[in-house]
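Repro:
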Amino acid sequence: MGRHREFDLDVALEAALRVFWEKGYEGTSFDDLTEATGVVRPGLYSAFGNKEALFLKALDRYDHTYTAYFAEALAQPTAKEVARHILEGSVNLVTCYAKSPGCMSVNGALGCSDHSASIRDELFKRRDAAQQALQDRLARAQAEGDLRADADCAMLAGYIMAVTHGLAVQAKAGLSRPALMAIARHALSTWPPATADRVTLRRTARPKNRP
């Protein structure tokens, strides 16, 4: 009979996730993972595969657990509330653990060299999919009259994603949660209205020419 595993898979995966979140993919060694999980190398290999496979499993868990706010944001009733939910959720995410500030995906992508191109490409693919989902949601808002007709949905989606990535980088650099939230709220203040502002042009009476 085979031996039963003597560790909890979910607990071990969460521990590995926290290490990857703190150190990035390339910055994490297998020794780091065995120390954090309390599981010897053969046990980790048996349960999760190699380091790349373990990272991808941790990334799936991260997406389902820590970035669930993104899917919740897309379900908000207005485009501006979608943007608000994403920006505020991002600040909460990148500041939730003092030991591992920032975003696991951003931290992982920034630290990847050509030796880890497959990991970098996977992170980029997931980022692009999130941005496309946001763009589609904004296009729907535009069709429903919730976003002005001349708004560029692709640009707005890219803008929100760029701000969230910037928040992650700044959090990693030590910026405080209040400072990050202030940036998020300023970004939201630039959001276009549902309809184009109507500007009343007042004509100034010209003086009549005197003979």
